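FW: tagging you since you asked about this chain on Friday. Here's the raw sequence from the shared folder, copied in full. Didn't touch anything.
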Amino acid sequence: MGQLAVKTRFLAVLLLALSCYLTGQESGGPAPAQKPQETSSGTGEKLSLPHQAQDFKFGKIDLEMLKQVDAFDSYMEEKGWVYNDPETNAYLDRLGSSLVPAQTPENVKWRFRATRDLEVNAFALPNGSIYVNSGLLSRMENEAQVVGVLAHEITHVVNRHTYLGYRSSRKKMVAIDIMMAGAKGAGFAGGSAAIVATAMGNMLPLIVISTIYGYSRELEHEADVYAVNALQLRGYDLREFSRGFELLRKGPEVDLSKEPVFWASHPKLADRVQYVAKMATQLQPNATSLRVGEREYREVTQNVIRYNAGLAIMLGRPRTAVAIAEHLIAEEPNNADNLALLGDAYRTLGARTPVPVQEELTDESKNEARKRIRKMTMVEYDKALLGDAHGVERWEANVARSEETYRKALAMDPNNANSHRGLGFLYERKDQRTTAAEEFRKYVELAPGAKDARQIKLHIESLEKAAPAGAPAPEHP
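HL: got it, structure written out here
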């Protein structure tokens, strides 16, 4: 909720403006429905390379852009944005490689990887690198749904959408004016958001950045049709592709964005749900034994999904963490780490309810939340929520839920270090200093090599010092 969140929100709005201008996202309705190719299902065949991809000729400006895109790939890894879990990325690569055309387009090297990003998004770079955010992986339920996303993104690479858009955008210098206007509007963040945007702009042409946030409706429809064909060839249940869109529409947080900027909301998700469902009915009216891949998907992606819950807590989205932890517990009810994660999520809810209440969804409440977020850090925002009606009552309920969940985890595994850590923070917040120090000491004993062991020791020292009566406990992460 602090400056980092403000920077991210500003950058998203800025890139949306560029996307709308450069790719015409708001112009026209969806393209006319196209009849999918007649194929047999489950044969392992691959779609052929379309003519527009075979006929594409690289020019000087295309090759210049390719160099920048390759450099950005390296930058993603250097900055730690790629989620480097071998099992997860090998799984994505296996799925993606099964969907690409039989002939690899020129200057494309297919790579499929996860990124450390809470937003529900996926995007493709024109060099063949396709990234799926951890936020999207957490929202999906099975392999068939994720395969639909991968096949969709493959289309943007195969059909050279970014190169064609870049050629067109070079003549539209108004993009520079949009960037400058956006930078002037960054005053609320001390100008720092403009620096972030400029840094990305220096690394990639603006048209490439804009494609991360969606193409025109016609191109998105084209990508969906390719995805349907690819899934049909591999024998996947096309109804799951449509259901995947539905899942992307429903999140556990209150959506405070005024404009759609991520994969889940472009171009118009309701329309896409309908026409993909219609294709599924036409192609698989009485199909049986279709592939879904729910069990394998959850097994392979469990680590990245659990990671995403921790990321949600760190970025001030505890409701997302609650939803993920509850899903993990439903699958593995005897896993103490999952219970500890739910305890952390309840603890960081503060004065929020686990699920948004109706009053939060009104325009008036959303506007008030936006005003607070622009002015406050995450800690200040949480304190403000405590002052709202029912704030203290909700906080006390979450504290009780959190303590109960930690105790369940310790009953299951007395040596569960994360539960002791969570209880330490919980009691520290309640100003029960002696009890908090005891829990922190147990954590350090059980996990002496933990990354935050030194920080926790400092907490112990602070708690053991005599403090004036009524002094507030130190803030915790």
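FW: The first helix runs from residue 3 to 23.
HL: agreed, and The beta strands are 111-115, 122-124, 129-133.
FW: great, closing this out.
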